[in-house]
Inverse folding.
């Protein structure tokens, strides 16, 4: 169904390509000013009192309840929550709307990895003008540093994805495999499992940019260094090499299920035990509950396997912010909603509905940490996620054109999964292709 | 258009009256042709002109838009990704199109021979896939190609064999060719069949009286008679091959590593535009590909019509 919908979207998008591009150039040269005039809290309150209607583009499911509560609290405000597509589909729509200068939403969901690209394209409002500085300390360090990019604060963290190891306990028990604590143990477990049951794999992977960068992040790699418009790429640094070496053995020994994430086969594999683990962000439980109801009670959560035995390193995987496009009609009202949803009462509503927060208060609350997940056999999984959030390796940054770089990941790194090309060479090819794009786009690439 | 040409002015008319009269008449002509010209300009000329306009600029994330003349075109001609895509569709054209057209021709001849039982059924059955939208057809084939959960996987499990994965990088082009053949064999068959229907039956009788065998009739009467249809079908297929997009684009989600973002020229233009925001370069790729397609189609047409004479 997912494939179907995306295919349709793409086809539809292609059909309107000519029209879109036409609209783009017509307004492309319209370059608004860079300066954002400060907006005081009083002005935001005034906007709330005055009322009006705002449009929010987001696909995050729990925002629905937030909108209902927000409208109940501020009856004069009408919020149109629009699902303009997930991830890239929405970014394409947003980029086109911004370029065309019309139909721009007041608030948009933007994943952390995509935020720098929009900030750099001067499409977003610097929230410092709204006094976002007062929120220092409200959010956990990882997401907070992710939204502070390019000398401003271009979004407020909505959720986060500190990674953990999700594993099918039933499969592990059946084959008497220990839960791996290091990546070497993970590779050994992969071998043992596949030998015991040729239909079972430790995990699935067909080449996923988000996963790869997260693992390099955890390994301490810093392949992307960004300073304004100066970009340095090095996908052969120590962390990247650690990842490439371990993952190469899994690929070469055919220990990874060749199933794409979010496909029908993936859900099936997670349910029947043929995909035994997932190393993924803390937003996964809600997806498991809805997508793999049959495996309820079989799965457990453990900390991420480590690159060095005994270490406590983690990384983020996914996670989104809410941002205000500069061209949005009502920035002040947009900010009011933004703050409500990410730092105000909206947070509790979202957590209650299964979201994983990015706010320190919620992450530390006893109620949140003590929550027992029936899906994980009553395990208090949030304790592990919260610990992971605190252990995220600092200093990571994405490319200012990560959206594009991720789109060509399978052209380059993906080849290592289907041919004899080494993974390290694939990473090198990815680096070169991304660097070329960066140069074409006017960055100084070193 | 010849109907609308102004009639020649009578030679006996006075010279000073001739000029205004001619002007009035030419305005009348434009009034008739105007609505068409407006639609033509808006629907056909404007998009192409706009693409050409786009192709001489470059918009960057840092630095904005600047005029670059023909630099984008220079870049296309040295772009390995563009040429690998073009080579791939050329290979597709050289292999898939002949197979599809020969199959279509054989079926058309078989149905036309009148020796087939259930002729109407076969005609509809072979044509049916053309009525299935390409998106649906590709999804359907994609599920069958699946080596884990699809038909291929089921065959492997049931018979304990290990068929090669149709979605592996080596085979994926052939798998797409299979889908396209399935989709368009019926369409081409119908073109050939309708062309065969208008061949005068007296020619067959004459040939039979002269003692020609069925094969000879096909070779010397039927094929020359439908050369026009063959040519048209070939040109359509060439254009279709160069514009290959739907099938690989949909299969990409099933085989992301086998089908790159520059698998075909159209896919390349699409991802340049929608993932990379390189509208200018994308427009350039589209124009160059359009011209290449026209050249190849025109060359085939020239060759086809020369034989005709």
């Amino acid at each position: 169904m997912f494939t179907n919908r995306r295919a349709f979207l793409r086809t539809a998008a292609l059909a309107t390509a000519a029209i879109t591009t036409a609209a783009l150039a017509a307004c492309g040269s319209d370059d608004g000013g860079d300066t954002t005039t400060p907006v005081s809290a009083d002005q935001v309150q005034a906007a709330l009192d005055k009322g009006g209607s705002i449009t929010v583009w987001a696909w995050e499911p729990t925002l629905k309840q937030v909108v209902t509560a927000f409208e109940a609290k501020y009856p004069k405000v009408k919020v149109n929550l629009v699902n303009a597509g997930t991830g890239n589909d929405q970014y394409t729509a947003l980029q086109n709307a911004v370029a065309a200068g019309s139909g721009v939403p007041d608030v948009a969901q933007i994943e952390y990895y995509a935020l720098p690209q929009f900030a750099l394209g001067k499409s977003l409002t610097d929230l410092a003008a709204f006094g976002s500085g007062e929120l220092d300390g409200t959010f956990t360090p990882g997401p907070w540093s992710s939204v502070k990019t390019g000398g401003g604060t271009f979004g407020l963290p909505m959720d986060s994805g500190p990674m953990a190891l999700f594993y099918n306990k039933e499969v592990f028990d059946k084959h008497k495999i220990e839960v791996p604590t290091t990546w070497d143990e993970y590779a050994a477990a992969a071998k043992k499992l596949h030998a015991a049951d040729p239909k079972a794999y430790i995990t699935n992977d067909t080449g996923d940019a988000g996963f790869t960068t997260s693992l390099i992040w955890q390994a301490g790699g810093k392949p992307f260094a960004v300073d304004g418009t100066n970009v340095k790429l090095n996908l052969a640094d120590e962390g990247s090499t650690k990842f490439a070496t371990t993952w190469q053995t899994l690929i070469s020994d055919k220990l990874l299920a060749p199933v794409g994430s979010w496909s029908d086969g993936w859900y099936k594999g997670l349910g029947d035990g043929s995909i035994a683990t997932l190393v993924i962000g803390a937003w996964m439980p809600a997806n498991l509950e809805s997508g793999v109801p049959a495996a309820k009670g079989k799965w457990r959560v453990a900390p991420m396997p480590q690159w060095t035995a005994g270490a406590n390193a983690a990384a983020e995987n996914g996670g989104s912010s809410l941002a205000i496009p500069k061209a949005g009609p009502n920035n002040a009202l947009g900010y009011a909603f933004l703050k409500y949803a990410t730092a105000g009462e909206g947070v509790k509503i979202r957590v209650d509905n299964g979201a994983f927060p990015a706010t320190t208060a919620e992450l530390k609350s006893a109620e949140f940490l003590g929550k027992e997940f029936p899906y994980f056999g009553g395990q208090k999984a949030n304790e592990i996620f919260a610990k992971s959030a605190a252990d995220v390796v600092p200093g990571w940054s994405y490319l200012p054109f990560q959206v594009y770089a991720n789109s060509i990941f399978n052209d380059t790194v993906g080849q290592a999964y289907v041919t004899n090309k080494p993974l390290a060479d694939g990473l090198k090819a990815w680096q070169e292709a991304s660097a070329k794009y960066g140069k074409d786009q006017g960055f100084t690439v070193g | 258009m010849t109907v609308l040409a102004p009639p020649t002015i009578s030679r006996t008319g006075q010279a000073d009256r001739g000029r205004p009269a001619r002007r009035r008449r030419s305005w009348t002509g434009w009034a008739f042709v105007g609505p068409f010209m407006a639609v033509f300009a808006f629907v056909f000329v404007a998009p192409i002109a706009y693409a050409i306009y786009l192709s001489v600029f470059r918009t960057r994330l840092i630095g904005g838009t600047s005029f670059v003349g023909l630099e984008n075109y220079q870049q296309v001609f040295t772009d390995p990704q563009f040429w690998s895509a073009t080579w791939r569709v050329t290979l597709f054209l050289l292999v898939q199109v002949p197979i599809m057209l020969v199959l279509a021709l054989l079926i058309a001849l078989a149905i036309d021979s009148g020796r087939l039982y259930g002729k109407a059924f076969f005609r509809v059955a072979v044509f049916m896939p053309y009525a299935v939208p390409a998106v649906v057809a590709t999804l359907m084939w994609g599920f069958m190609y699946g080596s884990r959960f699809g038909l291929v996987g089921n065959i492997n499990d049931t018979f304990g064999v290990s068929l090669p994965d149709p979605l592996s990088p080596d085979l994926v082009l052939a798998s797409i060719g299979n889908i396209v053949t399935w989709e368009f064999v019926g369409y081409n068959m119908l073109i050939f069949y309708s062309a065969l229907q208008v061949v005068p039956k007296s020619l067959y009788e004459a040939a039979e009286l002269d003692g020609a065998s069925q094969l000879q009739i096909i070779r010397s009467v039927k094929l020359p008679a439908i050369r026009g249809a063959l040519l048209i079908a070939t040109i359509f297929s060439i254009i279709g091959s160069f514009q290959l997009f739907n099938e690989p684009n949909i299969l990409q989600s099933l085989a992301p590593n086998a089908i790159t973002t520059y698998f075909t020229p159209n896919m390349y233009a699409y991802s340049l535009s929608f993932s990379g925001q390189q509208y200018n370069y994308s427009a350039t790729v589209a124009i160059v590909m359009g011209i290449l397609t026209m050249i190849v189609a025109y060359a085939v047409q020239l060759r086809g019509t020369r034989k005709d004479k």
Observations:
- The first helix of chain B runs from residue 15 to 55.
- Chain B touches chain A at residues 47, 50-51, 53-54, 57, 59-65, 135, 138-139, 142, 146, 148-149, 168-169, 245-246, 249-250, 253-254, 256-258, 260-262, 270-271, 273-279, 282-283 (CB under 8 Å).
